[in-house]
Automatic annotation (TrEMBL):
SUPFAM superfamilies the record matches: RmlC-like cupins (SSF51182)
Protein name: FdtA/QdtA family cupin domain-containing protein
Signal sequence annotation: none
Domain Sugar 3,4-ketoisomerase QdtA cupin, chain residue ranges per copy: 13-136
Superkingdom of source: Bacteria
Pfam families named among the record's database cross-references: FdtA
Entries under InterPro entries matching the protein: QdtA_cupin_dom, RmlC-like_jellyroll, RmlC_Cupin_sf
Amino acid sequence: MSATIAKGFVREISLPQIHDPRGDLTFVEGQNHVPFDINRVYYLYNVPVDAVRGGHAHRELEQIVFALSGSFRMTVDDGVTRSEYWLRDPRKGLYISRLVWREMDAFSQGAVCMVLASHRYNEADYYRDYNQFIAALRDQPQ
């Protein structure tokens, strides 16, 4: 992990793990392990190792990103600081608040990324242009 983005905007979330000789079990509960109600779950798989995903920020949506299998790099940017996180442990997710730019790359072969989201899909919630994202941050009340 590298430099930390403003506290609360991005942080690691650890989920419980129940050990059993037949295999481990991890679970997640909204408003318990996750600081929001889960309104959407999606996952990425069969991602080419040289692909770049993300490349956007959200106006309102919060999310937690997990590497269920394999690994990948998350780069997050709050307009001041860029930080990198390697996700590879299915018990540990990365919470990303609203108004944080995110990019994903360096997917390992067979990586599976699962995302828990606070809102349903809404294209109007996205900033897909980095300069528009930076301009929106300047317009935010302090």
